[in-house]
Design a protein that fits this description.
alpha+beta
């Protein structure tokens, strides 16, 4: 699993216990803050020893990382679904200071004719698509088709109630922000950021190989599995230190009260409608990040990743640090 944004293949955290090695052998190379107490090496005479590599345990995620991660797991779905509830009050996006109903960037609209009945129409830069049942018009619990931007199952509350959606959104937005500040301070003060998250030039030189390996589902194992790869570093750093602040600032820009306190926000984003559009794009960027993250968690060992984000301990197979498909645990 991951850090505050959620990592399926992470790196190591706080200093763990001294490495314990098999009798008489040299300690394997490891990050000094990795707990590497070896466990249960298979017997040489056992048939399984010929098939399974020895394994060891590392302390992958420190408690502050795990705590911040699970708070985000709670906050993000609520923020997205309550945000879609707010969006449904005016399901269109514009650019600039004011809304222009004749020139929306995106609009979830409806069309009605006696022949076709009510239809949901999504307009993107002037191009229209029939999205009945999903966007623009969708069925309620009774099966009746209603005009609605996003469907009931995607919003909190499920029925149209703007005021309640705002309460959910703003409360959990504060939780999300405070959690982000907590994680950011921890990441810098503990050196988690520069030690584990920030991609260094030597990491970037391997980005092409990392892309090919991911496309071919060749995942790191052995010592390499104890560290983030370059794609993980880029993804987590972007989510935590780019997307997070961006969605916060655009949210602040949409508030008239905060605009008065910080008028430079409107200038920065080119107007309140522009900020709303960027906020929407950042929201769906988070959704895309989470979807890819969950997929990678599943294909690189669901239980091993989940366990490491619950108790911090992660099992790796010592296969020389090469690339191998990792066996699920």
């Amino acid at each position: 699993m991951t850090d505050s944004t959620g990592a399926e293949n992470g790196t190591t955290e706080d200093a763990g216990p001294e490495e314990s090695t098999p009798s008489g052998t040299e300690a394997p190379t490891a990050s000094p803050d990795v707990s590497t107490d070896r466990v249960a090496e298979p017997e040489a005479s056992s048939p399984s020893a010929l098939e399974l590599p020895p394994v060891r345990w590392i302390y992958r995620h420190a408690l502050p990382v795990r705590l911040a991660h699970w708070i985000n797991v709670l906050c993000l779905p609520i923020l997205v679904m309550s945000g879609l509830q707010i969006f449904n009050a005016h399901p269109a996006l514009y650019w600039g200071e004011r809304s222009d109903r004749d020139r929306p960037i995106l609009a979830l609209d409806t069309d009605y004719s006696e022949a076709a009945g009510l239809r949901g129409i999504t307009r993107v830069f002037g191009h229209s698509f029939d999205t009945t049942g999903w966007l623009g018009a969708s069925k309620d619990a009774s099966g009746q088709l209603h005009r609605r931007g996003f469907p009931a199952w995607a919003t909190i509350p499920s029925f149209q109630w703007l005021a309640m959606g705002r309460r959910w959104h703003f409360f959990f937005a504060w939780v999300f922000v405070l959690n982000g500040v907590f994680f950011g301070l921890y990441a810098f003060l503990s050196r988690h950021f520069d030690r584990d998250l920030f991609p260094l030039p030597r990491d970037l030189r391997g980005i092409g190989k990392a892309v090919v390996d991911h496309l071919l589902f060749r995942h790191t194992a052995g010592e390499a599995a104890a560290r983030y790869n370059v794609l993980q570093k880029i993804a987590y750093t972007s989510a935590v230190f780019v997307l997070g602040p961006l969605i916060l600032l655009t949210g602040m820009t949409m508030s008239p009260g905060l605009d008065a306190a910080f008028p430079g926000l409107l200038t920065l984003f080119g107007g309140r409608q522009s900020a709303r559009t960027v906020h929407f794009i950042a929201c769906f960027s988070f959704i895309g990040f989470v979807a890819v993250h969950l997929f990678m968690v599943a294909v690189t060992g669901l239980w091993n990743n989940l366990r490491s984000m619950v108790v911090g301990r992660y099992r790796i197979a010592e296969v020389g640090g090469g690339l191998h498909d990792q066996k699920p645990n």
